[in-house]
Design a protein that fits this description.
Elements lengths: L2 H13 L5 E2 L16 E10 L9 E4 L19 E2 L14 E10 L3 E15 L1 E6 L2 E7 L6 E5 L8 E10 L9 E13 L5 H25 L1
Helix pairs in contact: 1-2
Length: about 220
C-alpha cells in the first residue's frame, strides 16, 4: 500500500470539507432592506453635476410616480432607488447629472477566485457598472425594461469589494426624475480551503493510524 498517497488523499478529503460554494452575502437588491420613502443604507450615493439640490449619503426607496409606471413597477423583490424620498422629483434642469450608487461586500475568508454573480438592472437614464474599478460590459439604457449583468470571475479581490452603479440623468427643465433598480439573481463563492484546528487534529490521528498500520505490516513481513 502506498501510504504517502493515502495520506495525501486523506488531507485532500478533509480540506475539501471547507471548499463548499455558498451565496455571496451583502449583495442586496435595491430597496430590499428599507421601506417606502426611507433611506436604503446598503447603497452609498455620490453625485456629480450642477444641480443645487442637496443629496444625502444614500438613496431612498422612492415613492409615487413613476415607480409604478412608466418605470418597471416596484415589487416585493426590489424597488427603485431615487436621490430623494419622492420619486416624482425633477433633477438636473441645466446639465447632465452623474449618480453613483456603491454596494460593498466582503470576501474575507473566501476564495475570491471562485466568486461569481449575475443579475439585472434598470436606470433612468443610462447606466454603467464596475467592480473594483473594472468596467463590466453590461450597460443599462432603459427604465422600462431590464438589462442583464454578470461577473463570472476576474474582478473579485480578497477582502472588501465594491460594485458601482453609475447612471447619467440627461438634462431636462422639468419632469426629470432619476432612479436605479438592481436585482441579483445568483451568486456563488467558495469558503477558503484552510483546514481548521479540528480538521488538522483528525488528519494527525489519521497519520498516526497509518503509521501503526505500516509498522504492523513491516513486522508481519519480518
Amino acid at each position: 500500500m502506498n501510504f504517502k498517497l493515502l495520506a495525501a488523499a486523506t488531507l485532500t478529503s478533509l480540506i475539501s470539507i471547507n471548499a463548499s460554494a455558498i451565496p455571496i452575502s451583502d449583495l442586496y437588491n435595491t430597496g430590499e432592506s428599507s421601506t417606502a420613502g426611507t433611506i436604503d443604507s446598503n447603497y452609498a450615493l455620490s453625485y456629480s453635476g450642477a444641480d443645487t439640490t442637496a443629496f444625502g449619503a444614500n438613496g431612498y426607496e422612492g415613492t409615487g410616480w413613476p415607480t409604478q409606471g412608466p418605470w418597471i413597477p416596484n415589487n416585493a423583490t426590489s424597488q427603485w432607488l431615487t436621490p430623494g424620498p419622492s420619486a416624482n422629483t425633477s433633477y438636473d434642469p441645466v446639465s447632465n447629472g452623474t449618480y453613483t450608487w456603491s454596494l460593498t461586500f466582503d470576501l474575507t475568508g473566501y476564495d475570491a477566485t471562485s466568486a461569481s454573480f449575475d443579475g439585472r438592472w434598470a436606470t433612468d437614464n443610462s447606466g454603467t457598472l464596475s467592480l473594483n474599478g473594472d468596467a463590466l460590459s453590461n450597460s443599462s439604457a432603459s427604465f422600462t425594461s431590464w438589462a442583464t449583468f454578470s461577473d463570472l470571475g476576474g474582478s473579485f479581490i480578497a477582502g472588501l469589494n465594491t460594485l458601482e452603479f453609475t447612471l447619467i440623468n440627461s438634462a431636462q427643465a422639468t419632469g426629470n426624475p432619476a432612479g436605479l433598480r438592481v436585482e441579483f439573481l445568483n451568486s456563488n463563492v467558495n469558503i477558503a480551503s484552510v483546514p481548521e484546528p479540528e480538521t488538522l487534529s483528525l488528519f494527525g490521528l489519521g497519520l498516526i493510524a497509518l503509521g501503526l498500520a505500516r509498522k504492523k505490516q513491516k513486522s508481519s513481513r519480518a
